Amino acid sequence: MDSKNQSMQAAAAQDYREVQPQNTGAAGQAQATAAQPQYNTETAYQPQYTAETAYQPQYTAETAYQPRPYDSSLDDYYEEEYRTARNLGAAALGLSIGGFITGWFGLGLLLDLVAIILGAISINKNRYKKGLGIAAISVASVGFLLTMLVYGFAFNEWKENGGLSGLLEDEPVAVTQDYDYDTDYDELVVPETQPQSDTAKVKEKLHYSVGDTVTVQTENGDYAFKITGVSETAERNQYADSDPDRVVLIDYEYENISYVIDYDNYYNDKLYMSSSDFEFYDADGHSMDDYPISYEYPHSITPGHKTSGQMALGLNNDSNYIEMELDDYGYKGPGIIIDLDW
Prior knowledge:
By secondary structure, the protein is an alpha+beta fold. 35% of the residues lie in helices and 20% in strands. The strands form three sheets. Strands 1-10-9-7 form a four-stranded mixed beta sheet, with no helix packed on it. The protein has a four-stranded antiparallel beta sheet with strand order 2-3-4-8, with no helix packed on it. The chain has a two-stranded antiparallel ribbon with strand order 5-6. Strand 5 and strand 6 form a beta hairpin. Helix 3 packs antiparallel against helix 4 and helix 3 packs parallel to helix 5. It starts with a helix and ends with a strand.
């Protein structure tokens, strides 16, 4: 800043010299001296800008960012957290497996719930390694749902069987009897029981022939069927399990009068009759089986409708007779026999 002041002083002196009169001699020197302004360099303009008053930024080394010192105790803390999370995850997985295995018992549900809670805590403590917690929650959830399904089906079955009333009905009644210990058992006379005759044990049977209409009244409704014809066929099936001497075709038709199965959990208003609704015996009393060849199949029909079809049987004797017996569990009347002669 001193060099700048000196430059300003030199310029002022130069201007003074330029306007100084050019008089020489003693008179001129005296006049110059008298006319010279009283310029004092000490009183010249001095700028007030100094290094001390210049802008000083407020940034100091003391206010700069100072990193936090490394704390080794954090490693121990996080290591302890991860170890706890791992142990909880392993325990949860073990409990979930135990709950899945013992789900048939009431303890399995409790183990599954505890496993789900511990698995969630394990995931929350260690968000980077949470495989054990996820596996435990998955296994426990599946075990819990399966157990609830099994209990639900069991409860539904128990309810359909009458619930508590069904259990009370099946409960055996205690029989009490007073015994006379003074009785002389040698004097007791046991009455003889009369054996039932063999004919009384045989269920009554009604016989029908080809062309007769048989009306059947069951607990599920009524239907009627009729055998319309019996014939033999030369058709054979090389893939059949049996090779009978003869193959008999039975033509039949049936009508659904009012047959409807209506249970609590099942409803069917259609009737379908096939060889599975009958038992077949030959003239020697041997049972007969179906023979798989192509023939006409009947339809499932609702009440008020009719249909027709065929059956095929294998026969291994020369007699032209087959006993055809109705096999319907809903029918409680006398046995129904159709004598097939051709």
